[in-house]
Design a protein that fits this description.
The structure is a single chain. This protein has about 150 residues and is of the alpha/beta class. Helices cover about 30% and strands about 20% of the residues. The chain has 6 helices and 7 strands. A 5-stranded mixed sheet has the order 5-2-1-6-7. A two-stranded antiparallel ribbon has the order 3-4. The protein is globular. The chain starts with 7 loop residues before the first helix and ends with a strand.
Length: about 150
């Protein structure tokens, strides 16, 4: 017989994180966001349970990539019809819908299971600095080191 110790509702409480993507490298930022969405930073982490937090990303339009990815990276999707392969370059997608870039990067870093869509629903991405969740934010990521969080008083 197993017994639970402590308040389970308090352990599974979801915290809101604010991430400023201005000048951040896409891959490193995406992996940190994926870990936060999964809940790997919590001591109660279990791969089969959904214990992650909410993440609000601002300034997605100003994300950085290394090397020549800005000109060379292509995003592909298929319509399902013969000859229906669609391609769009990174710089064109950044002008059109910059939030799709971070969403696709984080989606590729999450486990491919039934919890993936639920975890991605807790990711809110905004191309500029304004967002409607200012009163919910508990922690914000430092702009230089994404892993370190600071409490907002």
């Amino acid at each position: 017989m197993s017994t639970g110790i402590g308040n389970a509702a308090l352990a599974y409480a979801r915290v809101w994180h604010l991430v400023d993507a201005r000048g951040q490298v896409l891959g490193r930022l995406g992996s940190q966001i994926a870990q936060t969405l999964m809940g790997k930073h919590k001591p109660i982490y279990d791969p089969s349970s959904d214990c992650g937090d909410y993440v609000v990303v601002v300034n997605a339009r100003h994300i950085a990539v290394s090397g020549r990815k800005r000109e060379q990276k292509m995003y592909r999707h298929h319509s399902g019809f013969p000859g229906g392969l669609k391609e769009i370059a990174f710089d064109k997608l950044q002008e059109k819908t910059p939030e799709k870039i971070i969403e696709k990067a984080v989606s590729g870093m999450l486990p491919k299971n039934r919890l993936r869509k639920v975890r991605l629903a807790r990711l809110m991405i905004y191309p500029d600095g304004e967002h409607p969740y200012a009163e919910n934010i508990i922690k914000r990521y430092d702009t230089k080191i994404p892993l370190v969080t600071q409490s907002i008083d």
